[in-house]
User: Fold these one by one.
Assistant:
Number 1:
Amino acid sequence: MKISTTRRGSTLVEGPRRVLLYSGSYNHITDGVTLTLNRLVAYLESIGIEVLVVAPTSRNPELDHAGTLVSAPSIPAPGRSEYRVGTIITPALRHRMTSFKPDIIHVATPDLLGRWTMRFARRKEIPLVTTYHTDFSSYLKYYNLDFLENWLLGYLRYFYRRCDIVCVPSQSMIDELRGRGIEGNIRIWARGVETDRFSPLHRSVEWRRQMGVADGIPLITYVGRLVQEKNVHLLIETHKRLKQQQIPHKLMIVGEGPERERLQEALQDQIFTGHLNGKDLARAYASSDIFFFPSTTETFGNVVLEAMSSGLPSVCSVATGSSDLVVDGITGFLSPIDQFEIMTEHIAELVIDPVLRKAMGRNARFEAEKYRWEIILGKMLDYYKEAAQTVHPHVRPPRTPVAVS
């Protein structure tokens, strides 16, 4: 059996044997981050790697989690109580993390407990990988917290330059971070999609009729959390403009969140499904005709990729994530968020022209084939192995080599 020794003295058998993952969310809420991390943990365990997950939990988790999960102290996130912020390290939690003896530490959230975990990795001279899932600074304006931007950017610079590898989901996110002065060994770790699950084959005319979509009427769909930072108010504006132009359509909104009540009041004759998953979500995508996603706060845009895999053309904002997935004019359209008239024109064009709609949908499906999960998950294992061979500039290497027999 081949044994390699890192320059910090960690002993690895064909790569890491034990991975410690800290995340601010893992099973208490369902979103792109939690689904991605659970899939990663399941993959690591399937190839014989032991994983210990440390994360805030709740009494009513939304996900059946993968891996061994240890609950971390936390408080509700300000303004977004459905999310939680890891806070302090308890003696019991410190003991559990230390006795696990991880070969790799992976931090997915740079909150208070994420900071402690980062410093724990540095003190213990354990290779440290982090994944950048949330563009925190872009959220500030939606909660009147712009005055915190300089402080937040300073903290993020401090945090990420102490990591061996920083994984972001797209090239546009790398450009965004470097433009803010966040440097380091930044690599791309995209997200994947189950192309068999999210497929045009799941389209159902019967389901459309059950949902109240008349035959021949294009169905425009949004999938995501109903929160203001996703620019969901533009769903209302889009519907109004199409209606004013007498363009037949139906709008379907898939998801839950604090903005649902306001949206339902303004869109009383449209479809609200609530949260969907599994086969129900796959069928909803495939039975739609156009995907509309105006968010500008994504780091990747998992739902855009799911829509593409389902054979839908997408109309999205020019933003990190979406801009890396949608090929403008080929698989859909990209529009600046401050030029909403152009965005509406693109949607109207797809509604009116079924030939263009279907051609872009076929192109989108072809593009989505490049993002199969088996390729994406294996890439993270490569990054773990690379991190194990890296000496972080802020960490002293061991004074004497560790002998391996």
Number 2:
Amino acid sequence: MIRRRIAAGALGAAMTAAALVPVPVQAAAGQASAACSMTLGTVTVQGDHKFQRITATAPVTASPPSIGPKALFPVDSVRLATSVGWEPDPPAAMLDRGYVVMGTDLYRFSYATANGQLDPDSVQKTRVGGGWIHQTYLEQSTYYGPTTRRNAYALQGDVVTRWTVEGSVWRNKATYSGFSAVKTMTLISQTRGYDTFLANTRGGALYTIRIPVSGAPVVKKVRASTWQGFETLIAEKCGNQSTLLLAIDKDTRRGYLYAVGHANGTATVIKGLGQVGDQLAAPEDKTYFRHYPGSAESNVLLYGE
């Protein structure tokens, strides 16, 4: 196992200090954001999957929620979920797969649907491991290239952990400490050499965290305040190198959409596109995830930094 601490002092202290400097969200962004959209996935208390298409129109529009498969997981059991990738499953089905934490265990799951109907025989849940008690964030990232790279990430306390994923085996565990101020994060970039996350802090700051294949993370401040209210961040690719960002405040049940330019520290352009409907988050929502084309052929890679 590899363990590294962020250079130049504890990141938590740096984040807290930075959060004291008020910097408003800038109101400039490229016009390309108008055509961008994302599919927000939800695991409900009932164990259902729920999907909603959110589009960066003016004003922001959201499709009616589509619920199903129903009762995919036991009632009120799912605590964390990764992004869920879908791909064709010939001759006529679509296959979805991802990871969830149920209770204290991590599971890999998959299921197939045809014409919107679940094939009950296709549902698979495979236990990966236990000890998932205090983690507050979970994500997977697959980079398709000459050499495919699959990694998984988790946040627990002040530590971000990364694994290399090979089938059902998670190995090469590496830990990076100094992230105690982070409230939540979302994957915004996938390249051959690194994955990058956008993270907000309890003090309100916004940072990028680049985690290279080898070496220590590179952390850059993007904004210093106003982001503390969001418990969930979901990102989707917008254009060639920008990001459509959904920020959800579960206390008020509201979601807000942002167009984020290619991340470049405090020079990053962020435009608030508006609130998503009246109340995006429903009382029965447990956790949220990105739903995206996940096949090698689709090659939908995030490139926000």
